[in-house]
Specification:
Layout lengths: L1 H11 L4 H8 L3 H8 L9 H15 L3 H12 L1 H29 L4 H44 L4 H7 L12 H4 L3 H4 L3 E7 L3 E7 L2 E8 L4 E6 L2 E6 L5 E5 L2 E4 L8 E6 L4
Antiparallel strand pairs: 1-4, 1-6, 2-3, 2-5, 5-8, 6-7
Helix pairs in contact: 4-5, 5-6
Length: 268
């Protein structure tokens, strides 16, 4: 059982549950739930995987193998679907060279290639002829327009222009509102800067796509952008401070608390 392996690894290193909590920022009650296989007491599926990875890395186990074992114990249908997908991709890859060999081994392939090449050359030549016709027509049209404009100009037009008083040139300076673009129009996305004061497991989704998932060490600074929405989940909410589009909004919660925050353009 996954929980037994985590507990045995912890005991081999003479670590207490409190030691794991201090080293991973996972609350003690969640650590006990992991070791006892009581996954229903954890905040959600994404937290379960994140806690397992952090715990496994801290005690020296293979985090990827531990997450896979968790899925095999609790979600075998997902593992089966992934295996079927992998087998399908392998079969397609194996069949591709065979089909290519059969095509090239056809005794009539040389004749077909020659016919295809001849047909291709005919289409190319026809396309070139059409392009030449269109180009010549365009040039002829431009010449006609220029000639018509020249013929429509009357001889006394220069005299009328000399009799008219000189036009006054007026320079209009743009107003301050026109000169300075609206800052709200320049900023088209959501930007969050996170500064960490302690270890914290973090997951970031930008417009529904996962950008980052893992543990950030103390003293690190991370930055993420999204067009419409950023959803950030912190496993140790008191250890991180957010700055949203240049505005410091502070920590999302307390030390050891799991908090999910959503940032959008509308609520900035």
């Amino acid at each position: 059982m996954l929980g037994d392996k985590l507990r045995e690894a912890r005991e081999r290193k003479n670590l207490t549950i409190k030691d794991i909590e201090m080293g991973t920022s996972i609350r003690s009650l969640y650590i006990e739930a992991l070791e006892n296989g009581k996954y229903g007491q954890l905040p959600g599926e994404v937290y379960v995987k994140g806690f397992i990875r952090n715990y496994a890395n801290f005690v020296g186990l293979d985090a990827t193998a531990m997450v896979k074992e968790y899925l095999e114990e609790n979600h075998p249908e997902q593992v089966a679907l992934q295996a079927q997908s992998a087998e399908g991709n392998t079969a397609e890859t194996k069949n591709a060279p065979v089909q290519s060999t059969l095509m090239h081994s056809d005794s009539n392939s040389t004749g077909l290639e020659q016919d295809s090449y001849s047909d291709f050359r005919q289409r190319v030549d026809a396309s070139h002829r059409r392009q030449n016709v269109l180009l010549a027509g365009g040039i002829f049209f431009v010449v006609l327009v220029a000639a018509g404009y020249f013929l429509m100009s009357t001889p006394d037009e220069p005299q009328r222009k000399t009799q008219q008083p000189p036009a006054q040139t007026t320079t209009t300076r743009p107003t301050e509102a026109q000169a300075k673009p609206d800052s709200s129009q320049k900023r088209q996305d959501v930007e969050v800067v996170a500064k960490y004061t302690a270890r914290c497991w973090t997951e970031v989704k930008a417009d529904g796509k996962v950008l980052f998932e893992g543990t950030v060490e103390s003293g690190k600074t991370m930055k993420w952008n999204a067009k419409e929405q950023l959803v950030i989940t912190a496993g140790n909410a008191g250890a991180v401070n957010y700055t949203v589009n240049g505005k410091n909004v502070g920590a999302p919660g307390e030390m050891g608390q799991v908090v999910e925050k959503t940032f959008t353009k509308d609520n900035m």
